[in-house]
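Tip: read the tokens left to right.
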């Protein structure tokens, strides 16, 4: 009877070991899936980070270009104002020269 009890206990322990091995196998699968998901998340994170850095750099470049264009626009606006003043002065000189010529012709 002692042998039967020990044999039954042995078989029970063998079944328990098989169940534990099955649990270990399931946990290993679960861990492998988690590591796979983690690797994917890391990859996606790196891609987003690379995109952010790229667009941040483009944003800075665009701001610099806008600042440069504003400066050029300011310079061109000043040049246009100078040219307008020159045109007005030359028109006045032309009108004065015309009246001087007319007066010269009328006086002679």
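Filled-in amino acids:
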């Amino acid at each position: 009877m002692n042998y039967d009890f020990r044999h039954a206990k042995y078989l029970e322990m063998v079944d328990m070991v098989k169940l534990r091995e099955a649990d270990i196998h399931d946990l290993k699968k679960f861990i492998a899936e988690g590591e796979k998901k983690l690797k994917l998340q890391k990859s996606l994170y790196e891609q987003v980070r690379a995109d952010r850095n790229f667009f941040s750099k483009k944003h800075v470049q665009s701001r610099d270009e806008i600042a440069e264009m504003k400066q050029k626009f300011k310079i061109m606006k000043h040049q246009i104002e100078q040219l307008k003043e020159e045109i007005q002065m030359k028109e006045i000189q032309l009108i004065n020269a015309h009246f001087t010529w007319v007066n010269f012709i009328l006086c002679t």
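Helices lie at 2-107. The two ends are 157 Å apart (CA to CA).
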